[in-house]
Amino acid sequence: MPRLIHLNGPTACGKSTLARRYVNDHPLALDLDLDQVRDLIGNWREHQPDAGQLTRDIAIAAARVHLASGHDVVVPQLLAEPLFIDKLASLAREVGAAFHEIMLIDSKPNMLRRFRQRRVHPNSDTSEQELSDLYDRLLALLPTRPNVRVIHIDDGQPELAYQAILSTLAKSGI
């Protein structure tokens, strides 16, 4: 049974790195990074609401095709509101895939420090206050997501996080 894996979490917690590691270890799995999809849309910065909706629609369509072909899809995306997460879960049910919702968490100070060090997206104009607010929204989302599995991130230990993801997937029995 194919898996649709949503890796959620604050900025700079390793979502993209861990998604890439998963697809490297699972032939034909798809790393469906919404930021990369959005970057393919012309002049998206001038049309952000429309570009955001197009990005999500393209992602759902791509995930549908990939899952229906029997292959895993990993979506490494910070989502602080449930609407798109619920669409992912619904898609998994529609195509007979297992849905795994995983939240990667670290402390807010660590997240802000890594953001300052890495500047995750070169075109990011996100302020530290906006990131702090997003972090708070993510934590507020957790109690509303009964099936989310939380993995605590240890700075500089991506292998531990990856093994925790694999363990979480194995424990689901799917």
Q: Give the termini separation.
A: 7 Å
Class per helix and strand makeup: alpha/beta
Helical fraction: 40-55%
% residues in beta strands: 5-15%
Poorly predicted regions are: none
Largest sheet, order of strands side by side? 2-3-1-4-5
Judging from the principal axes of the Cα atoms, what is the shape? Answer: globular
* Structure summary, number of beta strands: 5
- What is the count of DSSP helices, taking H or I runs of 4+ residues? 7
Average pLDDT over all residues? 90
The main sheet comes to: 5 strands, parallel
Order of helices and strands: EHEHHEHEHHEH
Q: What Rg, in angstroms, do the CA atoms define?
A: 16 Å
